[in-house]
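User: I want to check something. If I give you two sequences, will you return the structure for each one separately, not as a complex?

Assistant: Yes, each is folded on its own. Here is the first sequence with its structure:
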Amino acid sequence: MKYLYSSAIILLCLGLAKFLSNLIDSPFPTPLLAMLILLLLLLSGVVKEHQLKPCASPLLNFMPIFFIPAGVGIIEHLTLIGHYWPLLICVLIFVPLTSVLLIASIIAYFRGRHNDI
């Protein structure tokens, strides 16, 4: 019975997310919205952790299987990655660095302003 109750909570969150996604016609991914709904239910105390544990624990044990296709894709495209590695390094280093610097400069600008009313 505890497995049925646990899976029902997870499936209800997914169903609610699907309903909301269709209602507001949003491109937001439904599984991510379902996880946010579940997080809100957990944080508010409506759902307790022990209620989800029977169904969530086996799912977490098999989670690495979902990352295997991404690893295989990287291995299959090693020659392509080897050909474009300078561009990839630039993108992986300079884009986050410039984003952080831009955000820091905007914050510094607004912190330095004085609102005189």
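And separately, the second sequence with its own structure:
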Amino acid sequence: MASTAGQPQQINVADLDISQLAEVKRQLEEELAHLTNSFGQLKQAQAKFKSCIESVQQVNAANQNKTVLVPLTSSLYVPGKLRDVENVIIDIGTGYYVQKNRAQAVKHYESKIEYIKDNLDTLQGTIQKKQDNMGYLVNVIQSKLQTQASGSGNKE
């Protein structure tokens, strides 16, 4: 006999009572909120990397020795002069920075954007499935409520 331990058991939602359906609906709403929040955060990260590409492209020979604002944090900038317009220092994560030439830096950020795009596509599919499940669940709840209402109406 095959063991099903560790495997999720499938339950037909139509077999659940209204209070159980309400709990499943609440869980689905929480999952959807979390997934939607994650989607938004990924979109923000993607926009940040696109902004980084634009910043790298601003570093060019025409701007050499010009005063620019250098970001120290996301909200603190100090004036500085561009001396080396061929190389930039990029944040590769967890507080580590490396020097790359402009083409390498753009390629790095483009790969990050593509990675996020793939994750966004996957996440969008998951969100769509959860929304479809939510729609089906709401229909089941409404059907049960109507059945309950018509059943109690016949008893009077």
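Because they were folded independently, the notes below concern the second chain alone. Helices lie at 18-58, 102-155. The chain has two helices and four strands.
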